[in-house]
Amino acid sequence: MINAIQEMQRDKPLILLVDDLPANLHVMIAALKADFRLKTATSGVSAMALLDGGAECPKLLIVDVRMPGMSGIDMLRRMRAAPHLCDIPVILVSADASEQFQTTGLDLGADDYLVKPIFRDTLIIRARNLIQRSEERDKLRLAGHVFDFSGEAIMVTDANNDIVDVNAAFIKLTGYSKAEVLGRNPRLLASSRNTREHFRLMWDTINADGYWQGELWQTRKDGSVHPKFMTVSVVRDRNGEIEYFLTNSVDISEYKESERRIAHLAHHDVLTGLPNRLHLQIYLDQSILIARRMGEQLAVMFLDLDRFKNVNDTLGHPVGDELLIEVAARLKSCIRDYDVVARLGGDEFVVILRGAEILSDAIAVAKKLNHRLSQPFVIGAHTLRLSASIGIALYPDNALTIDDLMKNADTSMYFAKSDGGNAFRFFSPAMDLGAHEKLKMESQLYEAIERHEFELHYQLQVDQHGRPRGAEALIRWHHPEDGMVGPDQFIPLAEESGLILPIGHWVLEQACARIRAWQGDARTCTLVLAVNVSARQFRQPDFALQVRAAVQRHGIDPALLKLEITESLLLKKVDEVVAIIAEIKALGVGFSLDDFGAGYSCLQYLKRLPLDQIKIDRSFVRDLATNDSDKAIVRTIIAMAANMKMAVIAEGVETEEQRRILLAIGCSDFQGYLFGCPLPVAAFEAALAMAP
Ligand code: C2E
Ligand code: CA
Ligand code: CA
Question: Which of 374, 296, 396, 403 is nearest to 339 (CA)?
Fold first, then answer.
């Protein structure tokens, strides 16, 4: 309760009453105590001490003029000379009603003058008015301060929208002096960048809501244009008529610039500063629209650097990055201002040309691009040579949509690449999608060795008692996009393109290294490792040499290496094949004939081949239990092999029943999921360690 009263009290303004006669003080206290908080002093000196003492500053002083020591006039004089007291309103009270006396007081800065005897109501009203006026003055002073020192440019215009005042920030922002703008219409700041519509909307809003906020372009005195964020508010008089328009504005050039930069980043490649895929998409979209309307043509040129991966892998990414920046600069130098070159990512770029003579333009630009890129690049201490493969698709001849244009350009790029790179190819419908996929995989396959994406898995081979005898090495490709890819998906392509040669070489090396590594463990040191050799690989003139070199390099027992060849070898020049096999066998390396029964199974030839083992194709093993004719064939193969002193291994053995039947027919070796799947080396070794 007491607190509440104190709270209410505190809201009331404080008045200091100064009079040497307690009776006078009592009269005033009685009159004012209901509406004000009061402090009293009985002399000018004690009053000044109170004011200087740092206590709460009163909102009003009521001071008796005639006091011993310091008179009311003296006090007033002192107060008006003191900066912290000069604004406090003062009412002088005196018994002297003479005009001269009053004017002296008012002259000195008294705000009012009362003659005794004082009437209660007069005192209250005068005190209240003075305090109210003083508070308004404070507010105005504060507003003036805000106006003058605000960081925001402030402009005040009257009802006719003529400028009546501007602040320092406005002068700084616009470059105009106050004198230059007073009385002028703010139109002088206008910029043609704003649309009429924008202004119309702005004024509609101001008239309807008395308030508008938004962005506006304005022109400085020096003619430069800048964006502003602006608030316009209407100040109305007591009758509700518009008196002023108050406009606050801040320069948002920097903000706009960073906004622009962010937008730029979203549309540009950070490394090279070239437009990125998103930007390209938008640009192509517009270009197609324009080309259609104007009857123009477009060329979409897909450019991929040849063997860029080498640079990254051997010299490191910083050098690769430098090279890409330089490539970007050269590409830009080859095209006209209104053509575009974008980076799709990695070492892929796209150039878009527009025009009427697009075919000859594209040829000229492609030649220029190939030429410019074939000049040596000097990056730090390195001088690098580079080339690019370029595929070109034309609008509207080859495709009408962005996707098709890009796809066709990409396809033709792969054709340029597969012809050895450093070339350009125009799209033709004969380059169908299948070809595209194939070419793409081929180029990826090409890089797979360099990128170490291949891995060998090992599948166990066991004897009739289930004891480990050896393993078959089976290649796997860790494709960067598609994950693990099986050999059936890429070996045929590798054979067709010749890539099987480096791949086969790698497999042979890996396998020999594995045999070597297995020598250190009793469980693995006797395992015979079977390696698949493709026909094309086998036919290399120096294949026997390669095998010997690998065996010697790794210092392995050649008897632990077995080459799996297929019947497809036998279709040509049997004598040569026999000679090569004999040469390799002379090293001590074994031979197995893979997938036997699935191909031509030319028994005549088979007799002539010095093989160690025949591998029964899994298609016969699969249906052994249900298909009697398969069983008969397998029985014949085994008998025939025994006749020729060859061992027989069955592959694809998945069930116990298959194993039992094969065993009964006389099969000596087995491979299949029943004994183990192909596994990465660590898993293979672990499984072997677990085996009984
Ligand atoms: P392949 O030489 O006939 O290899 C045996 C294939 O049968 C392997 O397929 C193996 O995973 C699979 N397999 C093993 N056990 C079973 C089973 O119990 N049931 C069934 N249904 N399949 C089984 P993978 O690894 O996909 O290899 C496919 C072919 O790719 C191989 O057939 C071989 O011709 C070729 N290949 C694999 N690695 C190489 C290589 O390093 N060089 C060459 N030139 N060819 C390879
Ligand atoms: Ca095989
Ligand atoms: Ca096989």
Answer: 296
